Amino acid sequence: MTWLVTGGAGYIGAHVVRAFAADGIDVVVIDDLSSGKTDFLVDGVPFVEANLLDTDVVRKTLDGVTGVVHLAGYKYAGVSVEKPMHTYTQNVTAMVSLLDAMAGTGVRNIVFSSSAGVYGTPTDEIVTEQTQPDPQSPYGETKLVGEWLLRDQAKAVPLNHTSLRYFNVVGSGDPKVYDASPYNLFPIVCNMLTQGKIPQIYGTDHPTPDGTSIKDYLHVADLARAHVAAARALESGKTLEPVYNLGSGTGTSVRQIMDAARRVTGIDFTPTEGPRRPGDPSRVVASGELAARDLEWKNTYTVDEMFASAWESWPS
């Protein structure tokens, strides 16, 4: 049993590789290092530096592989509005190339790293798999198209698949691997605190208990384990749902994140406050009931534990 992890040198991919290895599953990594880091790679895990658009290289890499975890792609939703063609090329055209290579080599199992970005700004109190997708960025659209590609390809060739939709991935399961995104809350807060600056809250007038927006935060190690569970289920022949939400059902507010940062770091600060950013939803929380039922998955980290792991791994 060997699985190919696309994007395995990235923040999430590196954790998925480690989770597979911890579960005794052999892994091969393919990554073009456009955002991944060689420092995140695991010693002894075969690594191929290539873009998925190179179908011939992907086909060769799939030799001896029984399944794929597909994480590679352009992941910046906001910037995707400015770079729609780049986003579609890296997220859709590249996935077509991957699926073509899989069909040509007889690889029949794939776990797709989708996104809660397919929902846009849902109005449901709790987002479920039945919530109507309404992506509001090219990034979200490409993730939904990726799910459609799997659906349609499975009608044409033997293909066992499932897609995992998740919201805000945080923390670290390995001190050597950290989230370096300049757009995510945890690394923004860590970066500002290490520079002696005060983090800011955007929007304190939301209709929530403390006035700040509530989102679903998922520890990256929990996310990685979900990919392993899905891979093992597909490998065993179990029929899975086409999509699963990975969510807490409750969510965490921005102010609660700031409070956790204060407790964990011991830095006594009061965040500055600014106006809401355009389009920032007041509450986006998902149910993880289906994933709990079929993948035995759940959120296992508290907000303090999430931030503590992010802080420990943050490069100083």
Characterization of this structure:
- The protein has two domains: 2-169 and 216-245, NAD(P)-binding Rossmann-like Domain (Rossmann fold, 3-Layer(aba) Sandwich); 171-215 and 248-313, Alpha-Beta Complex (UDP-galactose 4-epimerase, domain 1), CATH 3.90.25.
- The protein starts with a strand and ends with a helix.
- Helices cover 38% and strands 16% of the residues.
- It has helices spanning 11-22, 55-61, 77-80, 84-105, 138-156, 185-194, 220-235, 254-265, 289-295, 303-313, and strands at residues 2-6, 26-31, 47-49, 67-70, 109-113, 160-166, 168-170, 200-202, 214-215, 217-219, 243-246, 252-253, 272-274, 283-284.
- The strands form four sheets. A seven-stranded parallel β-sheet has the order 3-2-1-4-5-6-11, sandwiched between helices. Strands 12-9-14 form a three-stranded mixed β-sheet. Strands 7-10 form a two-stranded parallel ribbon.
- The chain has ten helices and 14 strands.
- Helix 1 (11-22) crosses helix 7 (220-235), helix 4 runs parallel beside helix 5 and helix 8 packs across helix 10 (303-313).
- Strand 1 (2-6), helix 1 and strand 2 (26-31) form a beta-alpha-beta unit.
- The chain is globular.
- The mean pLDDT is 96.
- It has 316 residues and is an alpha/beta fold.
- The longest helix is centred in the N-terminal third of the chain and has 22 residues, at 84-105.
